[in-house]
Design goal:
Length: about 200
């Protein structure tokens, strides 16, 4: 099968220093998942597909490659997004969320989180990583995180997810060692939410 043609008229620029920026971006994502709930700056490309925060574009450039399938929700999928992924990462774009190693969600509140890969008993690493766009990390529902990588507790309030997401997250976290992982992206920063971490509403 011939690969899909790339519409170069919609192509956005990638990293200015591809190797160095990708290395720095990978460290930021690794730190975010190692220290859940903490905010880490990430090197942002000069351009991003329409509606994508710069940090989301950086995460996609860093994590996607020709061997990783990616699902884009309806808000994230556009000619510029498809060109960006195909040209810079070479990642196959799939139509079914359950077929994806990665998912890019501009509207995570409307996602069906129970459809994403959770891995297999012998291969829990065969799960999905969800890259979710946020407006910010402070104006959403306040949640308290506990688990590995957190000394006592860590509070976050990502704007863009509400009760439906956190209910899905509780189901996901209960599956450990199976389950998907989440990277929130807002502006030029990321916050990690690995499957090992429990999240509960902050009590007044």
């Amino acid at each position: 099968m011939q690969p899909a043609a790339i519409d170069m008229t919609h192509l956005k620029a990638g990293f200015q220093a591809p190797v160095l920026d990708a290395q720095s971006s990978f460290r930021a994502i690794l730190n975010a998942l190692s220290f859940p709930g903490r905010v880490f700056d990430i090197p942002a490309p000069p351009e991003a597909p329409e509606g994508w925060p710069p940090a989301l574009a950086a995460a996609a450039l860093t994590l996607l490659d020709a061997d990783t399938t990616v699902y884009l929700d309806a808000s994230a999928r556009s000619p510029s997004a498809e060109a960006f992924i195909r040209f810079h990462a070479g990642a196959p774009i799939v139509d079914a969320s359950g077929d994806a190693h990665f998912a890019i969600l501009l509207n995570p509140e409307n996602a069906d989180f129970d459809t994403f890969r959770i891995g297999e008993d012998q291969y829990p690493d065969r799960s999905a990583t969800l890259l979710c766009a946020m407006a910010d990390f402070t104006s959403g529902t306040p949640m308290r995180l506990t688990g590995p990588g957190i000394k006592t507790v860590q509070d976050i309030a990502p704007a863009g997810v509400g009760a439906a997401f956190w209910m899905a997250w509780a189901r996901n976290q209960a599956l450990y060692p199976l389950g998907y992982d989440v990277v929130f992206a807002a502006g030029s920063a990321v916050v990690g939410l690995p499957r090992t971490v429990a999240a509960d509403p902050v009590k007044e």
